[in-house]
Design brief:
Blueprint (H helix, E strand, L loop, with lengths): L3 E6 L3 H13 L4 E7 L3 E3 L18 E3 H4 L4 E5 L2 E5 L4 E4 L3 E3 L2 E4 L4 E2 L7 H7 L9 H13 L3 E6 L10 H15 L6 E6 L17 H11 L1 E4 L4 E5 L4 E4 L4 E3 L2 E4 L3 E2 L2 H4 L25 E3 L12 H19 L12 E8 L2 E7 L12 H17 L10
Parallel strand pairs: 1-2, 1-9, 2-5, 9-19, 11-12, 11-17, 12-13
Antiparallel strand pairs: 3-4, 6-7, 7-8, 10-18, 14-15, 15-16, 20-21
């Protein structure tokens, strides 16, 4: 019997989980290959914790090959294009063929798309786009040296990984400055291109706006609504919005705009704009039955978090097995995601929701902090990334 070739694009959270779980659960011969340009896998939820000393940088990455099961092959290469009609993937090293494709390439951080952002990061000591690992690490020293002024966080108009991360950055910074005894000398502000800080009705995320607004009012965190960044005037340390408003900064943590990967958007028919088009429940591509997509590179109308990818992987594995066996697709993803919103040292709430409804109450507890900082990371490395997840 011929072996099925399963090709997984991307060794991030979704791709690694999917490859390992498939290797564990497939009941037929299959060759599983993961391709990624990086040989290192990073724990991205650490990026808003590293600046304040809650996680150490050296503990937040692992070799990709060390995470993959023995039955999964790793190819370090840059994906350059996908031809789903020929069932081929072009890389900068070779052409890879497949019978089934899982696209989990994530999204592309694009600080260069905002005039002045890249220059501000590279040429000054005041701007740190913390969704980049190097910027998150460098921000740690910057907040330690900060002695007052405006601390600013901005969010782009594009979809972003973990929409709660900018909010967490602002609240953890405010709490850090308070504990350092300089809070009276610091103004903290968050600017977003939306009307509300977390979610806009009718999104189920909006259920958590009231609690966020309450916390920000109590702690004097300013919210600049409907503020879309047009450029960063780094020579004068100010951010200009598309409607002409300006806000100054002394220490600035922008979220860079994020887009689809060029290999998919420019060199494949799998996307409609920026993201791979799939059925939001089955995760199967709209036009190609042998292609599935999960995580940040899929056009799913839910938040882009590792918790969402984790839930998607269970559905993907079941439905890919069904396609291989020529059976109907029965498993359905309901849009579940969860975002631990850390509000201060020792306190957090869990924003948890699916496509239709909020799930968790907007309540701050110490147990939520412990879950995010102490419990989830070892589960991430030792269970989820290894393809083990007892709670589908």
């Amino acid at each position: 019997m011929p072996t099925d070739d399963v090709l997984v694009l991307g060794a991030g959270a979704g791709g690694t989980m999917a490859a390992n779980m498939l290797d564990r659960k497939l009941d037929r011969d299959a060759s599983i290959t993961v391709v990624d340009k990086s040989a290192e896998h990073h724990y991205q939820p650490a990026y808003y914790l590293i600046p304040f000393g809650y996680m150490e940088p050296e503990n937040q990455h692992r070799p990709v090959e060390g995470l993959l099961r023995d039955g999964v092959e790793f190819v370090q290469a840059t994906v350059e294009g996908v031809d789903p009609d020929a069932k081929q993937v072009e890389t900068d090293g070779e052409t890879l063929e497949y019978d089934y494709l899982i696209s989990a390439l994530g999204n592309r951080l694009a600080p260069e798309s905002v005039p002045g952002m890249l220059e501000a990061w590279e040429e000054t000591d005041a701007v740190y786009p913390f969704y980049h690992y190097d910027a998150a690490v460098a921000l740690r020293e910057a907040v330690q040296d900060f002695d007052g002024g405006q601390f600013l966080v901005t969010v782009p108009e594009t979809p972003i990984k973990c929409g709660g991360a900018p909010l967490k950055m602002a609240m953890l910074a405010e709490d850090y400055f308070r504990r350092q005894g300089i809070r009276d000398d610091v103004d903290v502000a968050v600017a977003k291109p939306t009307e509300a800080p977390f979610g806009t009705p009718p999104s189920p995320k909006a259920h958590y706006n009231g609690k966020v607004e309450e916390i920000w009012a109590e702690r004097d965190i300013e919210f600049l609504a409907e503020f879309e960044v047009e450029e960063i005037d780094y020579e004068n340390e100010r951010v200009v919005s598309t409607d002409g408003r300006e806000v100054e900064y002394d220490l600035y943590a922008p979220v860079p705009p994020q887009y689809g990967q060029p290999a998919l958007t420019d060199n494949s028919p799998l996307t409609d704009g920026e993201y791979v088009t799939v059925d939001k429940h089955t995760l199967q591509h709209d036009d190609y039955d042998d292609v599935f997509a999960i995580g940040d590179n899929a056009n799913l109308p839910t938040s882009r978090t590792a918790s969402a990818a984790r839930k998607q992987v269970h559905v993907l594995v079941k439905n890919l097995k069904a396609v291989m066996a020529d059976r109907p697709l029965r498993a359905e993803y309901d849009g579940y995601t969860a975002c631990p919103v850390l509000t201060k040292k020792g306190k957090a709430m869990i924003a948890e929701f699916n496509y239709e409804d909020p799930i968790a109450a907007p309540v701050e507890t110490r147990s939520n902090w412990v879950l995010d900082v102490n419990v989830i990371p070892p589960m991430y490395w030792n269970m989820w990334m290894r393809g083990y997840d007892p709670i589908p």
